[in-house]
Every structure is written in structure tokens, then in C-alpha cells.
Amino acid sequence: MKFYITSIFGPYLALYLIAWALSIPLSFLFYAFQFLHLAFALYIAKKLWGFFKNAPLGDKVFWSLLALFFLLPGAYLEFPSDPWEHFRRIFRWQHLGYISDYPVNCKAKFAYFWAYSLLGFAPIGWRIKLCGLYSAFWEILLCLSLYRLLKLCKVPKRWAYIHIVAFIATFGTNLFGIRYYALASTPLAYCAYLELLSALVAGVFKDNPKTLVWGVALCTIIAFNHIQELIFVALMSSALAAYSKLSVEIKKLNLQLVCAAFLIFTTSILYFGMFLIHNYPNIYSNMIPGQLNRFGMFKIWDSSYGFYMETITVAGWVSLVCSTIFFEKSPLLFYMTLVPSLSLLFPITAAIYAYFIPTGYLTYRILYAFPLSVGLVEGIRAVLTITRKAYIPHYLKAIIPSLAFIAAVLIVTPYSYPFRGKIFMQIYLPPKSK
Description:
Order of helices and strands: HHHHHHHHHHHHHHHHHHH
Helix content: 55-70%
Low-confidence stretches: none
Radius of gyration: 23 Å
Strand content: under 5%
Distance between the termini: 51 Å
Mean pLDDT: 90
Largest sheet: none
Structural class: mainly alpha
């Protein structure tokens, strides 16, 4: 497995950290980055040439249309909104002499300087247009990172493309999807996280311990961009380790014994959650009153805490149901889909989140640890597979795929609550400021 994110952004981050540690002027670092940009541009040109020369026509059409879909609307810059703050963070570098001069909360987010080193040459009148190109770059890279993970999970290509569309249509909270965050430091951290998750799924680190250096490099890229994704790394690496062990051991055990052990374990954990809630309330002092139930589980089902429903949405709940019902059809993908939500319900991980996450509102971001759209698409694929093998009339076999497609579109398209489809915001053009 090749570590593309590390290979591309690792040298940039290394230079950035050296300049920070040695108090090297930003003017020197800015021009040093230009040499790396030249190498990066040549690498991208080589990859694109190889793709358009050798890839099947369908692949060329899909990725070209996707690129246009991201490019044409441009960056989302409606005032007031968070992207303007990210815009400010990017171009604030032009007034500084050293990395240490940058405000404390952003100097450790090196993607902003990387963006400035690309866009800082541009006249003010061109900056918004170029931010559209920059935004599209990260949106494409996010989709490529997810596509790579899906292919490692042995998802057929055409279904991987459907996954990409579903990801764009559902990932985010409220109306805010990947376009909304494209100017932030988050996309780079999330791409690095998906690459690390791909390596864990492929068993790269277990098969060749020397590759752990790549894992450390990815974690460093995450840490110096958006530390939230390190929580995802800890969660999913632990979950995948447990999956790897249990999926082998459970097959050796009697089903009744497994069910009995599960019942005992669940009961014990719930009592432990009650014990923590009643005896160590300080653990939960940062949370919203009533946000956890008496067993120490976050109430992700409770509409009183709308930030959960705004993130899960109808599509997400359908995904979680499909992941449970059809688990045996795509066990690894359904398992990863369930993990973030279950971790909010599991009293031990819930207590950890409550202690370390500064406010109860931010706990919804744990749901970003794996796209819920994956469970939705795999659920549709499972339904179609079962339908093809079932003894039902041929006319039903013919219409069920169409019905499944229509149902999925109706779930992910509306932008009103509780559907919160993101396609509208992906193509929305804010009115021009007066």
C-alpha cells in the first residue's frame, strides 16, 4: 500500500516544523514551499496524464463530472459563515514574520500556511475565485481517500462510485457538507485519517511493522491540522483490533455461549455506567444537563439534543438499521458504520468523551469517525443481492432496484429537517454582497 497523503504533505510539514522550531522567517519558508509545489504539480500532472491515457471511459467521465460539480459553484463564502473565518486564517499569514507570531489556536494548523503559500501570490480580486479551485481540490481528495478505502474493503467499482455520491449528499451536520469545510484545516486531517484507516483495514502495520513510521507520520499530519481526527484514530484502531480478534474467536464458540456472554457483558457495562454517573459526576460536568441517561449513554435518539439528529439524519438512521439487519452481508463496512454511534452509547467510551470533550455540543462530531452513508449504500446493495436470489415474481425483481433507488434519493435529497441532504448546499450560490 502506498501512503500518498504522507508522501505529499509530509515534506511540507517537516519544513514547517523546522521553521517553527528554528524561528526561520516566513518569507524564506514561503519560497521554500514553492519548490515543493513544483514537485507536487509535476506529480499531479503525471498522475492525470496516466489516468486520462489508461483509465476506462466510465472512470474518466465519473471523475471529470465530479470535478466539475465541485469546481463550478466555487468556494462557499456566504457572509456570515465559518468559511470566511478560514479565509481570514489563510491570508493572515501575509502580515506575519514568523510562525510564532500567529495566534495560538491556529499556528498548529499548518494547512492554512500551505493554502497561503499557494494563494498568497494572487491579487486580492482573484483570491475568491482561486479559493474555489482550492476548495474543489480538497473535495476531490476527500472523495479519492474514501474511494481508496472502499476498494480495499473489496467494494465493486460501480458501487464505490455510488458510495462517493452518497457521501457528498449526506456527510456533515445540518446543511453543512464537505464544501462548507473545504477551506479549513479539517480536510487534510480527515484525508490523513482515511489513509490511516485504509492501512489498518489492509493490515499493513501488522504485516510489516516497519511501516509504523508511516502511521506516526500520518498522526503527526493530523495533530498539526485538526486534532479531532486523532480521537477517530484511537476509536477506530481499537475497534478494528477488537473486530480482528473477535471475528476469529466467536466462530469457534457455541452460539448460546456467545449470547450468554454478550448478555452478561452488556448488563455489567450498564451497571458500571450507572456507577460512574452516581459516584463520579465530575466526569460529566462539561456535558449538557440530561444529555446522558442513567446508564451513562449519550441520548443520540433524543430530539431535545438536535445536534445528533442534525448529523445522523433520516439517512443515518436507515444506515444504522441496515448495518444491524444485514450485518453478515458486509460485516467490516457495517461494523465500521456502527462503531461511532455505539461508542456514544457505550458507557466507558461515553465517559471518556464526556471527560475530554470540552462541551456537550461537540460530542456529535464523534459521528464523523466513519461516514454513515456507507451503511446506507451497503444496505441497498444487500437488499438487491437478496432480491436477486429470492424466489419472487420476475416483475418484482425488475422494479425493486428502481424502488430502492427512488427511496434513497427521497431520503438524501431534501435539505429540510430531519433529512438534511447536502446536495443543495454543494451547488448553492450565495447572493453577492452589496
